[in-house]
Amino acid sequence: MKNILILIPLMILMAACNCDESHPLVGGDELEIPDVFVVTNISYTTIISDNVEFEGIQVLFNQDVNPELVIDSLNFFVEGADVIYSGNFWVWENRIFLPCGDFYCQSTEDCQPVIRLSGEPDTGIRSLEGDKLLDGDRDGRPGGDFVQEVSVTGCTFPGFRVFVFPEEDTIFVPDDPEIPLIFEVDFSSPADPNTVRFDTDTDNIRIFRQNDDAGIPFNMQWADGGFSGLDLIVYGPGSICEGLQPCVFRVFIEGSIYNLDGVQLDGDGNGEPGGNFIKDYIIVPEGGPLLQVKSPGEDTIWLDWGPDTATVAISFSLPVGPNNLILGRDFSFFCSNGASIDRSHFQFIWEEGSEENGRLEFPYWVPGEYCGGGVDTLNGQFVNIMKVVISDQVQSTGGVQLDGDYNGVAGGDAVKYFILPLP
Ligand SMILES: [Ca+2]
Ligand SMILES: [Ca+2]
Ligand SMILES: [Ca+2]
Q: How far is the CA of 10 from the centre of ligand 1 (A)?
């Protein structure tokens, strides 16, 4: 009679248990009821938390986990070749979740992170109720490590990138220490501030003069509390170039920065962690000896098409004036197929009282009329691309020849592309 009373609850337990046949809960000869804390399932799956979907590796237990006692690299390990892991995970109720992004695979093929949970008596993972040590090896007794490979697809490098503004390659700066030049650094996800060094001997954010590697002093401040943006502030930038000649500032951001998820910066943007970000700016001190096109600073300009006309501001770094810039002589206009567009379709108008600032107007330009039906852009929008060339015959009133190609030496046409979206 006594034996039957013991066997009935045992049978109920076994019926409810979705146990692995190869790892029976009960050892062959034992009749004790094991009350063990085990992993019941592990997989790469999608969960929903606060209406947001997360992909990741989920480890399910048969009882709630004590979250205080799950510790990275002490009893919780994510291992495997080609697997990058930040050390973060989530624990709640009877699960541990490792979101994609906190770990990722370096290659898409055969990615199999190994999850190891320790069942060591002193340091192992334990249940919340009853403080039961994990039976990782599922031999029915507390203790023993759980080790399992998990097949993962679609969890690759999340791309921690950096962008630096202004976008233009050429910046005109006044020779006034009160007016700073600010480079805006934007990270694609919040950076780990502990990995950003800028006032030490091993700075990983630097600005220097490209021709002689001289360091350019700057102040740095986080743009907000979220570590997503930095301002690099250079005071008196015009005085850093010698003799008011243009010079090149190189903004250098080392690939030794990590984001808060432990992902290394892909500074060179090749889709893999690591690599330095480098961007060169031609700094042109205003009032310096070169004549350059100050605006538009970019080589390619998208135009907002008005009902009848489009206007582009054109300005120069030195006075030029109407005698030295003649539309019919100094401007040329082309379609993207190389066909020339007659100059009579355009006007150049100086701002009143200015010899530096003017505007180019296209009052007679009908989209599509001169350059055909347009070019299909990648996003399906049809555009006309027009090339405008300003000849290097143009001189300043002081006789300085245009440096249209921004190479710091007089001479070279200025070439600008204007993109007009077609209706
Ligand atoms: Ca065990
Ligand atoms: Ca890279
Ligand atoms: Ca030049």
A: 19
CA dihedral angle for residue 202, residue 204, residue 209, residue 212, rounded to 10 degrees: 40
**Which pLDDT score, from 0 to 100, does residue 309 have?**
64
User: Ion ligand 1 — residues with CB under 5 Å?
Assistant: 135, 137, 139, 141, 143-144
In sequence order, which residues have a C-beta less than 8 Å from that of residue 67 and are 6 or more positions away?
91, 92, 128
Please name the helix (run of DSSP H) or strand (run of DSSP E) that holds residue 145, with its range, or none: none
> 289 C-alpha to center of ligand 3: Å?
13
Q: Are 291 and 402 in contact (CB under 8 A)?
A: yes
**What's the predicted TM-score (pTM) here?**
0.51
Of the bound ligands, which one is closest to the alpha carbon of residue 136? 1
**In the block, which residue shows the tokens 């031999």?**
139
Distance CA 400, CA 389 (A): 18
Q: Which domain holds residue 234?
A: 162-285
Let me know whether 166 and 281 are in one domain: yes
pLDDT digits over 336-357, tens only? Answer: 778 898 888 889 999 999 999 9
Are 131 and 183 found together in one domain?
no
Closest ligand to Cα 404: 3
Q: How large is the average pLDDT for residues 236-263? A: 88
Distance CA 134, CA 126 (A): 6
Q: What is the mean pLDDT of residues 159-166?
A: 91
Q: 176 falls in which pLDDT band (50, 70, 90)? A: confident
From 238, 265, 285, the end of a domain falls on 285
CA of 352 to the centre of ligand 3 (A): 29
What's the total number of domains in the chain?
4
